[in-house]
Predict the 3D structure of the following.
Amino acid sequence: MNITNDSYLDAVWADICAVRTQAPLVHSVTNLVVTALNANVLLAAGASPIMAHAIEEVADLARISGAVVVNIGTLDSHWVPAMQLALDTAYEAGKPSVLDPVGAGASDYRNRVLADLMERRPSLVRGNASEIMSLAGEFANTKGVDSTDPVERALAAAQALTQRNGCVVCVSGPEDHVLAPDGRHAVLRNGHPLMTRVTGVGCSASALVGAFAAVQPDAWRACASAMAYWGVVGQIAAERIAPHTGTGGYATVLLDVASTLTEAELATTLRAEASA
Amino acid sequence: MNITNDSYLDAVWADICAVRTQAPLVHSVTNLVVTALNANVLLAAGASPIMAHAIEEVADLARISGAVVVNIGTLDSHWVPAMQLALDTAYEAGKPSVLDPVGAGASDYRNRVLADLMERRPSLVRGNASEIMSLAGEFANTKGVDSTDPVERALAAAQALTQRNGCVVCVSGPEDHVLAPDGRHAVLRNGHPLMTRVTGVGCSASALVGAFAAVQPDAWRACASAMAYWGVVGQIAAERIAPHTGTGGYATVLLDVASTLTEAELATTLRAEASA
Amino acid sequence: MNITNDSYLDAVWADICAVRTQAPLVHSVTNLVVTALNANVLLAAGASPIMAHAIEEVADLARISGAVVVNIGTLDSHWVPAMQLALDTAYEAGKPSVLDPVGAGASDYRNRVLADLMERRPSLVRGNASEIMSLAGEFANTKGVDSTDPVERALAAAQALTQRNGCVVCVSGPEDHVLAPDGRHAVLRNGHPLMTRVTGVGCSASALVGAFAAVQPDAWRACASAMAYWGVVGQIAAERIAPHTGTGGYATVLLDVASTLTEAELATTLRAEASA
């Protein structure tokens, strides 16, 4: 069965509205570079961010939150136990959880931590192509945190990962792919290259996946809606800025569009399809 | 005795000018989400921020600073001793200190740490209604870091707190209330709902309270002036942005207004009153 | 021999283009206030930032990076070993490394850590006048992180430091001075006072020095080109903003100009000279 763009529109808009009206609490254990942007993106989308990593309170906060987001970008031995406990608590409490494997493959330490975190059964994983390939155990030429592998080459890895771990996997890039263990596959064709030139835009996608999963129980649909929203926002922002604007103004307008997106803007911009 | 808006204007403007001309050093032990915004707000106001949390230097820095600001938003067991030492040092050195009890009530850990920090006698406390109620030991429905209790319900808690601890207490919200142990009570009626949609705007208010307390020895007046300044800035920023602007442009203009506010702008916008 | 402005232009532009085309990976162990701005400045310049501090992976990341940048702004006992290892690894691997001695002189702890880090032979050091004077062991009246000493008074200290440690030293301020152990001395006369009113602009200069050193093997030239680029960007940004714009809009336009700077803009703005 194929789902076309029009079929998606209502679903994506309904999920955007659910985030805005329910204002889900999203608990992030995230990296030190993206805290402010992620919180601002969550606020712009209508969600309520809480960022906390103390082992003494992570379980309490995960239990009162609608979703947990773990991002290993600046992991260290003091934070990893909090990441583990946050994912464990989410799993036990039946809350959705998102793992963003930033820089997977860049160091042995990162790989070991990720292998452990995957055991704790995050319900969703979002990364770029090389991160997903690394997570899946395939060779990936990870250059820092930017992908050097085309998205296409990562799809096989993502399919292996979604089967092996039973989680929804999103490979983001020029096109975003969202794969479910039951074989559903969404392709989202929005976004803009400027999104890669502002730090934390990818991490913010993961934060949004958490927000949408908090209000939409179908994790695959939640992930596809979040990625659709963010890709559309990024594309409209690029269209809206003046020609001489660079990455500073783009980052500002990104939040402007995120916090004001209308159904009409979504409808005229969304390019998505899915097979199930 | 009642003080009306006009009586305030000169005091607030004098305090704003004192921050600008004296450029007080404000030492913050603050949370990982708001570091950059808080530093930029302090710089915009004319203060000089230093952010440091190493236990080995916190006392040295507190002693050379005009004020200490402690914000527990992303507390952990490595940072809490620095928060304790910073408050102790400020108290011993006779420096003003501000405690921002972010997320009070959200976890037992947070509550225990706050109870300890309150024992160290911060001279000012600023939080939203549910945080102040939690601090005061009353039931408060804290949903993450956003207040779900109306400001009015928190006033009794604030009054109890200011009496019990002998500190100035500010309950911020649609109206900001500043209470002193001697019974003085200022009400500030500026601000804008967009201020709640940019992360760190409340925490920045606490940072500003520190800056103003560094130059104005009357802690109650310093707090009222800082909150008046920030509320006026937030309101003018909301009036200045174009209609389609969202939270990104708003955050930018907030700093623009903070760094350029004139006496005339203050005079036409300030809405404040006090009883003593 | 004296080098005038025209002679510089080609060199600076060539280095800017090299960063843009080679997109060097720059590994930063930096402070918690400036992470996002530094990453965004590196991205705007065309470099690829990675920020990581776990002792378990710092050496791995330093080895795959083009340069290492260590910034002690929010140092603590958990991060200092990572700073040490990052500098040691860079030295052993023959990679350029930059030390930004934020707040040198503000506490004994900071001074002790800096003395240790200098032993690990960073290839470049960039700081303001009081920081460089403190590093060189001379009396410096460090008020937090802002210099209170004129740049001129620091030049003797910088010359002593470059001789003693064999590193390139940059003293930044209203004029930036770049000194090499072999006696070369560049003076860069761009920039704007607004650069001191946005947090992390100085730290971002250090990050850029890392990016330029990753593509330009002559460390003195790399440092001079990076400082020229950043000073020109800061000056053009100040010229471009509307009169009523404050520090918020300025910070945004700073990234706009950094990510779009043309050779013509550089040529009409650059003011530099050197003696060798």
